[in-house]
Design a protein that fits this description.
Distance between the termini: 29 Å
Number of strands: 7
Oligomer: single chain
Largest sheet: 4 strands, parallel
Order of helices and strands: HHHHEHEHEHEHEHEEH
Radius of gyration: 20 Å
Number of helices: 10
Helix content: 40-55%
Strand content: 5-15%
CATH architecture of the largest domain: 3-Layer(aba) Sandwich
Structural class: alpha/beta
Low-confidence stretches: 68-76
Length: 236
Amino acid sequence: MSRTRRAFEAKFRLLLQQCGARRLEQGMDWLVIRAEALAHRQQTPLARALTHVYRETLRRVSRTPGGRVARLWRAAIQPPPASLVTFQCDAGLGGLARWLRATGYEADWMADISDEELLRRGRRDGVVVVTTDSLLLDGRALRDREVLVVWVPPTLKPLEQLALVLDELGLEVKSPRCMKCGGALCPVKKEAVQERIPPRTAKWLDDYFVCERCGQLFWHGTHWRRIQAELEGISS
């Protein structure tokens, strides 16, 4: 049995347990079988089909009376308010970290960070650890509710991983942060950055933003609109 399937079985089992299902194993098996049928019918990877079934089930449970308690983080550790949620992504999730920033959340990423360091930061800083390593779900820190860990399949595209994380934690898309460093985007007068604006852009745009950390200049151009369109699509 693949690690991906085992990880989703654990997700399904926990979700069913939290919503009061009586036949956990039977329900879990049914959801996995449904995902396998979907993968076969649509000729799509099993990880993508499992993700689809999980997100669909999570949303259905969340709409039931008291269903919000069924979210994974309720079974792990009480998270901070959405306005204070920050993420620590593992070494393989640089792309996801950028998209988390685009949705308005701070997300740190290091190319060579170890699992031990991930968990240490989770304990010390209270950050949400996002990992592609399913073995991390079996660790003592998670069992003892010391760290909030969200697992995502490594074979999914960053936007698919993003949709799973937001659904898992019940988070909404907020005002974007700098995708490069995660800094807040602050409005700035056009005259103050005139020399940095491409001539064509300056002719038709008056609103500009500067990252408070790295100083990168932003405006609502075609690239910005493309990113917003991508984010609107993750809710499907």
